[in-house]
Here is the input.
Amino acid sequence: MLQVVTSTATENAIAVEAAEVIPASSPIALVSRNPVPRSEIRALLDRVAGARREVDLSELVDELVRLATASAAERTALDVWIKSEGERWRREHRPALAAVVEAAVSLSLPATERLVAAILEDAESDPTVASVAAQRVRLVPLAQDSHRTALGHALLRWIERWESVEATQGNATLALPSVPWLLGMQSLDGLTDRIQNSIPVIAWASALGLVDWLRAPKVVLPPDAATRLTDVVLKRIEREVTSGRRAERPDLVAMLVRLAGLVTPGTLLDRTAALLARSFAAPRGLEDAAAVHAGRVLTERLKKDATRALLSAFAATPDVQARYMTLLLTMRGRL
Here is the structure.
């Protein structure tokens, strides 16, 4: 268990005062001599609140989840604590609230939505707590679609603030994948612009968010949006390849290759197929695996047209073509 230092002076004073004013025969006194065991989670968080040193947030998350998983009563105690004390901790800018958010999301507690919303909607929230809330908000079950939209716009305000300062761009990178899950189609223009114009790590995070979201059932882009996004993705890949810095950031190209497989319309199929052939034949990092994954998605989406385009793109290198098509068949059903 997390070890922190606190004072018990207040509790001792309350006990003394109670002994002076409550008769020994009182039912309250009888109960106090046989008290219901106090919640371990509440006691832990009280100690954290009175700690004289910084708390290890990872250890606190682990301990909260362990206690709440082991006992339904402790799980309820954490949910009740969030409702009664979470807002006070937020106003007091306590970084340890980040651990409570992480644990609450992991446990799917009912009070999580209200707490996360309060954190993201207040521009004065502690940045560490806001960063955790921004990363985890996509995992929070939301009661209404209107809540989803409001939270999405609050999240974007934090991301825009983090993007504007180099020291906090890492927070933006961690938060961006949550955006399409909250705003859906409303997020497309902003994420497409980031893929086109932003620094590599922001472009990568934007592409990652779209890849995760587009793999969900029933998510289909309008034709115009798919065409624009594909064109932006292919041009960004070309820019990275010709920049001479491709080897320094292979994750970006690999992620964009995967995204191309998910969004390419029939009108741009030949361009994408040529890109996959190049990424597979001369890969950097995970580009070859991404090219196989993207090709598998393309053949499932566009059927014979995609197969024809891929065979044509690899026609100049029959041995590479044979390897690639064999891997496509091997991947059937693994997406």
User: Anything to note?
Assistant: Confidence is low (pLDDT under 50) at residues 1-36. DSSP finds 18 helices and no strands in the chain.
